[in-house]
Amino acid sequence: MITLYDFDTGLPGRAWSPYSWRVRFALDIKDIKHKTEWVQYADIERRLQELDIPPSQNLPDGTPRYTVPAIHDSSTGAKVSDSYDIIKYLDQTYPDTPQIIVDSQDEFLQSALRRDWGLVRDLMLPTGLVLGHIALSSMEGESRLKYQRSYEKAFKATNGQHASEAEPSNTHWKQAGESYGRADAWLTRAEQLSGGPWALGASPTWPDIVLVSSSIALFITAVGEEGEEWQNVLQWNEGRWLRLWSRIKPYSRVY
Q1: Does pTM surpass 0.85?
Q2: Where is the GST N-terminal domain (predicted)?
Q3: Are strands 2-7 and 70-73 parallel, antiparallel or unpaired?
Q4: What DSSP string describes the chain?
Q5: pLDDT by 10-residue block (mean), the chain, 255 residues
Q6: φ/ψ of residue 12, rounded to 5
Q7: Do 164 and 16 form a contact (C-beta atoms < 8 A)?
């Protein structure tokens, strides 16, 4: 049994971290039995230290940084943090399951196989601007304050408000639409090269799950499939995002 550590919210879909979504999709694609232990946002560092889970990175001054996702695999005793490292661990430890981080000989597709892919950031930032105020409103107490401080490092204040409290403007929606358009163009080209229906061919791999985790999975989490914001996205790119969500939805179970 694998325990996935993720931070809790009051959102309809509960799971808001795009990085945790990557691991959740990978576990479901691999059909590996797992459960989620929900941690309050303000308690992430304390809880992971209690569990002796290694930090996801060390800051330039040497300070360890603890973030979700993290996992504990009771069958091997392994404790791993950072979404990329976790998925590499799952691929290596469970080689008979579908592999997520795979190679490609095509130069265009290789760009998407890196740990840090620019197109993902291009999606995550406008998605956060459109939905961040909803996520913040679902939190309480110290977790809300700590999340807001983290959010404000990534997003500028607008119209005298904290970005995390501001309703999205038409400009934010325009930026989101443009970013999703660039992702649609990349996916279209990738599917042409690989034969589809996924970015690298017949099954979902790293490019698919990181794009979905940084975009439409967050819309579903924040507002649900009937939400007005999600309905807006469905109008973009000739139905691309509904088709993609329909394909990956079976792997979005939250345990």
Answers
A1: yes
A2: 7-98
A3: antiparallel
A4: -EEEEEE--SSTT----HHHHHHHHHHHHHT--EEEEEE-GGGHHHHHHHTTPPPSEE-TTS-EE--S-EEEETTT--EEESHHHHHHHHHHH-TTSPPSS---S-HHHHGGGSSS-HHHHHHHHHHHHHHHHHHHHT--HHHHHHHHHHHHHHS--BTTB-TTTSPPPHHHHHHHHHHHHHHHHHHHHHHHHH-SSBTTBSS--HHHHHHHHTTHHHHHHHH-TT-HHHHHHTTSGGGHHHHHHHHHGGG----
A5: 97 97 98 98 98 93 94 98 98 98 92 92 91 92 91 60 63 94 97 94 97 97 96 97 97 95
A6: -55, -40
A7: no
